[in-house]
Amino acid sequence: MNVTVRGRTQHHRTVAFDRARNAVLLVEQRLLPHEFKIVATKNFRETAAAIRDMIVRGAPAIAATAAYGLAQGALAFPGRDLRKFHRHVETVYQTLKAARPTAVDPVNAMNGVRAVMRAGRTVAEQQSLALAAAEEFASEDVRHCEAIGRHGAKLIRSGMNILTHCNAGWLACVDIGTATGPMYAAQAQGKKFHVFCDETRPRSQGATLTAWELAQQKISHQIIADNAAGHLMQRGEIDLVIVGSDRTLGRTGEVANKIGTYTKAVLARRHGIPFYVAIPLSTIDWNLKRGCDIPIEERHESEVLGAWGIITSLQSAVCGPQSTKRVYVRVANPTSGARNPGFDVTPADLITGIITPVGIFKPKELWTQRRKLGFTD
Ligand code: MRU
Fold first, then answer.
1. Among 18, 76, 129, 179, which residue's Cβ finds the most Cβ atoms within 10 Å?
2. CA of 178 relative to ligand 1 center, distance in Å
3. Span from the CA of 167 to the centroid of ligand 1 (angstroms)
4. Is the pLDDT at 318 greater than 80, yes or no?
5. In CATH terms, is domain 2-146 a member of 1.20.120.420?
6. Residue pLDDT, tens place only, 193-249
7. Active site residue 246
8. Is the pTM of this model over 0.90?
9. Which residue's C-alpha comes closest to atom 15 of ligand 1?
10. DSSP-based three-state secondary structure for 349
11. 57, 197, 255: which to mutate for ligand 1, most atoms within 8 A of CB?
12. Which fold has domain 154-296+341-368?
């Protein structure tokens, strides 16, 4: 998407690769919305750390990062011995896979890269196939989001108020976004609508990332506290909910997404509001048979017990350009601990439809339409 910083507009992808430096380029999302910065990870371990520490986050974005990280690790191998090379690639794969457990996209993306690599007869051939496959995954994600936008825009009418949770925008993908794809497409069609961004505690991806994206894109929006959605729904102030997903089960239609998604789905059902989930094909898990088997990431309690923000230096506010410093402040009672599950699972019966690159389906139709949706035995 286009990013305007200090009056200068430039197109950026969330994730890209610099072949000359063998580096993965990432938007440093922990600094947004206060600072826009691109960082380069120099080796696959740094790339895995960037996923783990949430410099990059969002299922398709960490998938593209893992695909590039796998290529980066493969390209760094110095010898010609194929057996040693495969052992090295396995280490790279496992390191990247372990970085975050809930999203299935990184695993699907890396499996795709490894399948393409098998056609190479030498280390050098497999190395260049790995990078080509990672580039193709990133470009396919962009095409998927464009197609999600085309299908999903039909759900949006002028005058609507739309609720979204967390960030399933271009920062969570390579470009465009899944939940935001239909919004950007509807905007391009001249439709006027308003978006409520759930703040999304504890890390506040809605308040920081989605709100920043929508502001950049000049879409009318407001941030709401996570607890406000029920009240707005009860008063008829929300017409449609669109969220993303980290893992959608192809066999059951259950959807894992940011903690609080399930709550919003229950509220939407109570108030008769359509609840849609937007996903690229890399988000579908065709193996797991039960939502309760989805690994749910448990994150550090400090995220719940406090919050990150910036302090604007008073001196520089008076004297010239403002300098910003990102700081953590403790909010909770000092002697209390916290529990911090990062995701929850929404049952299929609460979901009106799943917006995919090949059309909108009822959750249970994912399995009956599996060939169309890329399932292979
Ligand atoms: O913990 P995060 O910020 O990686 O969680 C992101 C989400 O839950 C998104 O909704 C999901 O990855 C879909 S992104 C298209």
1. 179
2. 10
3. 6
4. no
5. yes
6. 999 999 999 999 999 999 999 999 999 999 999 999 999 999 999 999 999 999 999
7. yes
8. yes
9. 168
10. helix
11. 57
12. Rossmann fold (3.40.50)
